[in-house]
Specification:
Bound molecules: adenosine-5'-triphosphate
Strand content: 5-15%
Strand order of the largest sheet: 3-2-1-4-5-6
Shape: globular
CATH topology: Rossmann fold
Number of helices: 11
Number of strands: 6
Largest sheet: 6 strands, parallel
Distance between the termini: 31 Å
């Protein structure tokens, strides 16, 4: 984050993930969301040690390298590297607490795909999240809303229909954003590579070259 971004007043928007590897589903969705939310910049937030899944096929360093290569095509996306630098599991609530301390008055927007938010009840201290950030739920092909009852109650009672509400307070609202469907997942990319084929148009060419050069995912035929 440069000095201008650091001292700005626009909401700080983050899209967390494992990015193992980053693909056009993430990138186009994040960039379109950025435009719809009328933001100059949106940050991809790679998890250092993801909590909700098996160990990634690529190291944290490699996932970060791939993100950097991918962002050459998306100049208005940036990377927040704090979870990669922090030791231990990447709990989102810790990250949001850090950001809140750094930016006490700034609205925070956490973008989460529908499949991921369906599992919100499994996130550490999930009830605290909405005290720290707004939640922007992004559509994803094949995923429909399916919440545990207490999560549904929280989401329904906090749903905002007007974008202005996200700038008017620092945290606490839920906003739904329908983005263009791009049916790509990291799992399917790894499966394709694992069977010796090329996932070509699913991800930037520079990322594909990096995967080839580093022999990533060759033996993985699942996630
Ligand atoms: P996997 O296939 O291993 O589950 P993934 O492709 O879902 O990986 P993640 O890094 O886990 O990638 O995803 C990070 C975030 O991006 C999540 O909130 C997820 O819902 C969202 N996301 C991933 N792919 C898409 C897509 N094609 N369209 C919209 N959102 C997506």
């Amino acid at each position: 984050m440069n000095d201008k971004q650091r001292s700005g007043s626009e909401p700080l928007a983050l899209f967390g993930g494992t990015f193992d590897p980053v693909h056009y589903g993430h990138l186009r969705c994040a960039d379109e969301a950025r435009e719809m939310l009328r933001l100059e910049t949106l940050y991809l937030l790679p998890a250092g040690t993801p909590v909700h899944r098996r160990k990634p096929g690529a190291s944290a360093r490699q996932r970060l390298d791939m993100l950097r290569l991918a962002l050459n095509e998306f100049p208005q996306l940036d990377i927040d590297e704090r979870e990669i630098r922090r030791q231990g599991p990447s709990f989102m609530v810790d990250t949001l607490q850090e950001l809140r301390t750094e930016f006490p008055q700034r609205p925070l927007l956490l973008l989460v795909g529908q499949d991921a938010v369906n599992l919100l009840h499994t996130w550490s201290r999930w009830q605290q999240l909405l005290e720290l950030t707004h939640l922007v739920i992004v559509t994803r092909p094949g995923a429909s809303a399916k919440y545990r009852d207490d999560v549904r109650t929280q989401i329904e009672s906090r749903t905002a229909t007007d974008l202005q509400q996200l700038s008017a307070s620092e945290a606490g609202s839920v906003y739904h954003l329908a983005v263009t469907a791009i049916d790509v997942s990291a799992t399917s990319i790894k499966r394709i590579i694992g069977t010796g084929r090329s996932p070509g148009p699913m991800l930037p060419a520079a990322v594909l070259d990096y995967i080839g050069d580093n022999g990533l995912y060759v033996r993985s035929n699942e996630r």
